[in-house]
Design a protein that fits this description.
Elements: E1 2-3, H1 6-28, H2 33-55, H3 65-92, H4 97-130, E2 144-146, E3 154-160, H5 164-177, E4 197-202, H6 214-225, E5 234-239, H7 261-269, E6 275-279, H8 281-284, E7 290-291, E8 302-305, E9 311-316, E10 322-324, E11 328-331, E12 334-336, E13 340-345, E14 347-351, E15 355-357, H9 378-385, H10 387-394, E16 400-409, E17 423-431, H11 434-450, H12 475-489, E18 501-506, E19 513-515
Parallel strand pairs: 2-19, 3-18, 4-5, 4-13, 5-6, 13-16, 14-16
Antiparallel strand pairs: 1-7, 3-17, 8-9, 9-10, 10-11, 11-12, 14-15, 16-17
Helix pairs in contact: 1-2, 1-3, 2-3, 3-4, 6-7, 9-10, 9-12, 10-12
């Protein structure tokens, strides 16, 4: 079963564009000039109407594939119609054919140039003019709070270093000191075994500081392959962008901006390690059609569609490993989940619809949004149905959540985050409980920077306004609460009560950390 996705939509737009060009040529040839001209005008204005109506006041939508294609149609139609009008006016003034040809050609070349540039300059210009970027930062002096609890339910680890690799080293050392080892060995319990297949879910939907830091990703993969008993497993970097995908961008979140996710993967693969990248958007509906398959599918890659918005991929890696995200690795005629590990690695940032993006919301890049067709969209599902919690409970719960807060997204355009607007914090956070981790990251890291109540996980203001596109002001609080509820139904122990959260920190000077008075 195949659902029509963006590949088919783009093909349809290309057919319309070809249709317009054919009509234009027929107009120039004076072959049924009037009906062809009317057809060109109709297509151009229909595309313009679609662009305006679908974008409305939600300026973020101008970056979506359908809006981009509609603007392409408008940019194609304007020079075609313009050249026709110039041609007719010139003919009435009895200009020479050479002069007419020169003017018409100039208009067409300029128009085609605008069309080619539309995927970069024009969209960026429109987006910048419609929604000027501002930073939410109100307080640039960030103090990290350490919490203590007499009866902890969840633990959060926070580390600061000179660079992402240094921060990660401090973080993993801290975790080990407190009894949570990144390595599972014959002598110790831990997270990653020497023969495991490790899926690292990154944020690759946004460029610049909006995506997961590739220096952090590189450092984490290095830690995996440095397993003390020798690593003979596999690492797969995965992502499913919901409107775009930037896995090989030269505007990455890294010290060297050209270091893309693909280049990080290539670095390890070229050394002989089984490290690869799988782009779920190719089967999930952004980079191609949504390929819907059954749970017992053994060869074709695709998404399994479950009730109430839940979906998950089954796919084969570059090295031939067949993986069901829900059931594990296909071995000896059955799925085995014991050696499949899922590392959830989001970037901490503001989100204009949902308030905050961190560990919980990051599961939006696991499901297929075109399959959220059960009477609500994916964001409604988050705040009303606990969709992210259901994804974790019904598909795969993270073995470890690692929040990239090296650069924190504090842009008014969030989840987009530019190089200029991001706040450099040099932090990495981790925890087994995504709810407690997000609660702490929102209340004690993002909110102290911005003083923006939407970033506070205890915000009770639930009003819905057009400014936030009809979503609740406290969307962050709501989606954490309902996700927690759904996870607790499946037996997971989680908390949003800071008196039950203990937080350990490493790599800080005394002046940049404090003991929370409520936790003493």
């Amino acid at each position: 079963m195949v659902h029509f996705g963006n590949a088919e939509k783009r093909q349809g737009h290309r057919i319309l564009q070809i249709h317009m060009i054919v009509r234009y040529l027929r107009v120039i040839a004076v072959d049924k000039e009037k009906p062809n001209l009317i057809g060109m005008i109709s297509i151009t204005f229909a595309a313009l109407a679609w662009l305006l109506l679908r974008t409305g006041t939600r300026f973020d939508r101008i970056r979506y594939p359908c809006q981009r294609a509609s603007l392409d149609m408008v940019l194609l139609g304007i020079p075609l119609l313009g050249s026709f009008m110039v041609r007719n006016k010139a003919k009435k003034r009895e200009w020479s054919k050479k002069r007419i040809a020169f003017l018409v050609s100039g208009i067409l070349v300029a128009g085609m140039g605008m069309l080619v540039a539309s995927n970069s300059f024009i969209f960026n210009l429109l987006y910048a003019s419609l929604k000027p970027e501002t930073s939410y930062v109100q307080n640039k002096d960030l103090t990290i709070t350490e919490l203590h609890s007499d009866a902890p339910v969840s633990t959060v680890y926070v580390a600061k270093g000179g660079d992402p690799a240094d921060s990660l080293n401090s973080l993993l050392s801290l975790m080990g000191e407190k009894g949570l080892s990144i390595y599972q060995t014959s002598q110790t319990e831990g997270i990653i075994g020497k023969e495991d297949t490790v899926l690292i879910k990154i944020n690759g939907e946004w460029q610049q500081r909006g995506g997961t830091n590739t220096d952090l990703l590189k450092a984490f993969i290095q830690k995996v392959i440095d397993h003390p008993e020798g690593f003979g497993g596999e690492v797969v970097v995965v992502e499913n962008g919901q409107w775009a995908i930037f896995l090989d961008s030269n505007q990455s979140n890294a010290e060297e901006k050209r270091q893309s996710f693909q280049k990080v993967v290539n670095y390890f693969e070229n050394q002989g390690y089984q490290v690869s990248l799988y782009d779920w958007t190719g089967i999930g509906g952004t980079a191609g059609e949504v390929i819907v398959i059954e749970e017992n599918e053994r060869e074709k890659d695709g998404y399994v569609d479950l009730p109430a918005g839940v979906s998950y991929p089954i796919f084969t890696t570059k090295f031939g490993t067949r993986i069901s995200l829900k059931d594990g690795i296909w071995k000896e005629g059955k799925y085995d989940k014991s050696q499949l590990k899922f590392i959830n690695m989001p970037v901490l940032k503001s989100h204009s619809l949902m308030g905050v993006t961190a560990a919980t919301k990051h599961y939006m890049g696991v499901l297929s949004t075109p399959l959220c067709n059960d009477g609500f969209d994916q964001h409604q599902g988050m705040i009303e149905q606990g969709l992210m919690g259901r994804m974790m409970a019904e598909v795969i719960y993270p073995d470890l959540n690692v929040i990239d807060a090296n650069y924190i997204g504090v842009s008014s355009r969030g989840p987009a985050s530019s190089y200029e607007s991001a706040y450099k914090a040099d932090l990495v956070l981790a925890g087994l409980d995504p709810i407690a981790l997000d609660y702490y990251a929102g209340k004690y890291i993002l909110y102290p920077l911005t003083k923006f109540e939407r970033h506070h996980p205890d915000c009770r203001d639930s009003k819905r306004t057009s400014r936030y596109w009809g979503y609740p002001y406290n969307a962050f609080h709501q989606y954490l609460t309902v996700s927690k509820r759904e996870l607790e139904k499946s037996g997971y122990q989680l908390t949003m009560n800071e008196k039950k959260i203990q937080v350990f920190v490493a790599g800080f000077k005394d002046s940049s950390r404090e003991m929370h008075p409520l936790s003493r």
